[in-house]
């Protein structure tokens, strides 16, 4: 498997992975109504591709996972989502964001998410960020815990017609900094 920056030609394949990951990997954590609300609220934020902060993991010529990070204030959601804030974060006092992590359901538990997390954390570290955060789905929490994140808070996303549970998870990018 190889990891590379995503480009505009990847968007159709990324959207398929996102839809399948939401429908299949979150099914045991959410009701049917919450799955529909997740599909409506989540998705690809094209700003990530334009900023060069979104990655694809490719195996045998096929995209099997995607995700990235952001130096912008928006915490989660696709380009179409509400509550967007494209303001640039200040690495001296803001946390970078992990964004839009998805693995094709037929390729889970092969290290894809970990590859993306490691690449995103290093890129954020290289830009001077000292900490990073995300809005994690219930299905994603075990991966992020295994990558050294901790749960700061659990809350309900109310962007859609039905509230969906999420967790703010954070990690220091430097060993000697408080979170």
From TrEMBL:
Keywords: Acyltransferase, Transferase
Alphabetized InterPro entries for the sequence: Acyl_CoA_acyltransferase, Bact_Acetyltransf, GNAT_dom
Keyword Acyltransferase: yes
UniProt keyword Chaperone present: no
Sequence ranges assigned to domain N-acetyltransferase in this UniProt record: 1-171
Pfam families, per the entry: Acetyltransf_1 (PF00583)
Molecular-function GO term, any one: acyltransferase activity, transferring groups other than amino-acyl groups
Membrane-spanning ranges: none
Protein's name in the database: GNAT family N-acetyltransferase
Organism: Sphingorhabdus lutea
